[in-house]
Amino acid sequence: MSNMCNILEYNRQFVDSKQYEQYLTDKFPDKKMVIITCMDTRLVELLPRAMNLRNGDVKIIKNAGAIISQPFGSVVRSVLVAIYELEATEVVVVGHYECGMTALNSQGIIEKAKERGIEDIVLDTLTNSGIKLHHWLRGFDNVHEGVLNSVRILRKHPLLPPDVPVHGMVIHPDTGALEWIADGYHYLEEQSSESESEEHSPSATR
Ligand SMILES: [Zn+2]
């Protein structure tokens, strides 16, 4: 039986036996958070359990590596929707050790695409259209760098409300142990004390 048939067969009894009742909630995140994390299979159940998250608690955005590669891509759009439309007030980027996006070999992916039938002319056309495949398929050198870069892009985003803390964390994919590597509360405090001291500095009062 195919995966899809298995899913549908299971689904029928899931719905018939009303197992959904334990998950009923609404679209607003009770913990007012939006989490950006990796699609890694080890995190599917582990991350919510390790962070004490239940259905209805948070918005979760996933991709390979929890990477925000551009300020006006779909990940940041999702973050903004969570904040402006769904009452999220805090953002957390959660990378993980042993991530497949660490030192991802873009050349290797391109070679595999060729082996799977993607012709050189297609790759040439993309390159000639200005698409930097090697850059686009790149991951990060280590997970800390990846998380901090995503945090940086969010913190300086022109459409992110200035009072929204953006945190960075790293989770261990076996134990679920978390490290808090970028403290969004502290960053906001620093920002506000910097702007206060600018207001009071002689150079700002001309
Ligand atoms: Zn990963």
Q: Roughly how many Å apart are the termini?
A: 76 Å
Q: Roughly what fraction of the amino acids lie in strands?
A: 5-15%
Described by strand count, sense and barrel closure, the largest sheet is: 5 strands, mixed
Determine the fraction of residues in helical runs and give it as a percent range.
Answer: 40-55%
Low-confidence stretches: none
Shape: globular
User: What is the H/E order?
Assistant: HEHEHEHHHHEEH
Q: List the ions, cofactors and other small molecules found in this model.
A: zinc ion
Q: What does the model show?
A:
Its EC number is 4.2.1.1. 42% of the residues lie in helices and 15% in strands. The chain is α/β, with parallel strands linked by helices and 206 residues long. A five-stranded mixed β-sheet has the order 2-1-3-4-5, sandwiched between helices. The chain is globular. Zinc ion is lined by residues 38, 40, 65, 96, 99-101.
